[in-house]
Amino acid sequence: MANTSTLTAEQVQQFQNDGFLIVRDVISDEAAKPLIHDLEELVENLTSAALDQGILDQDHTYTNSPFAQRLAQLGSACSEPNWIWKEYRKIGKLKTPGVFHLRRHPDLLDIIESLIGPEILAHPQYAVRAKLPDHMHTEVPWHQDMGYLADDDASNTLIVNCWIPLVPATAQNGCLQVLRGSNHCGNIPHEKLTDDPDTQAPVGIRDENLPAGEVITCEVDVGDVLLTMERVVHRSLTNKTDGVRWSIDSRYCGLGLPTGRNEVPGFVARSDQDPQRITQSHEEWIRLFTDSGIDLAR
User: Beta strands of the chain (E only): which ranges?
Assistant: First the structure.
């Protein structure tokens, strides 16, 4: 298979040393457009639901607002505080065609192949994130991705996360920070930091357990990809703007390896050994869940 976005040997080494790597200009606007369309439709559905429940005035639907602004404006306009966020969370993990097609983007998989080889599973743990302005519930504390998985199963699995911004991600609107080299510190204890049921990430690492290391603020533009390793310590900053920091994180690991979420299916994104195993369509992906009796919100 001819790769167009293969990482250089220097980039691979940097990823292994630091636990993260920023790769510029990977995802085209055209490739991201289907997912953004799905999210615009989701926001429209939330708008209709708020109108039906009488907590949003017809004059404050912000129909002509940009994608990066509208959800935040709707949240502020609803008479019930935090309603938009609670409803967004009820949707669970988005399984739209746009999510599926972006996770199978060939240039993205070429990058992943540089790190784990050509037998690639799109990991079951992924998320589409809407970080709202000055919103404590969408703040994510210092953590390792492995801290949210069954690490006894996946302790030897290299899991690569592709953190993909759908709007420019800056220090002002809540981009990620990483502790350089913390992927070499092993599994760090994670604890429940809050009992608030609306918090997106209640589990994290307490300050006294953080390893020493240089904090890197990872500002990335639309089209860029931030790669992180499963044990690198990272967090997201507070969104101090008036817009929404939309992003998707899509994880990958080698086929046949423990995922730490073995009860939820991933899908075969690439396989040179057995191309017939590749999940080719959104419908096939959804069938993996329904055939397993898995709730589509998981």
Answer: 20-23, 120-131, 140-143, 160-165, 176-179, 191-192, 203-204, 215-218, 225-229, 234-236, 245-254, 267-270
* DSSP-assigned letters across all residues of 30-69: HHHHHHHHHHHHHHHHHHHHHHHTTSS-GGG--TTS-HHH
pTM of the model: 0.95
Give CA–CA dist 125/212, Å, rounded. 28
Reported as a single tens digit per residue, the pLDDT across 97-109 is: 999 999 999 999 9
Domains within the chain, CATH numbers bracketed: 9-29+93-292 (2.60.120.620), 36-90 (no CATH)
pLDDT tens digits, one per residue of 115-171: 999 999 999 999 999 999 999 888 899 999 999 887 667 888 999 999 999 999 999
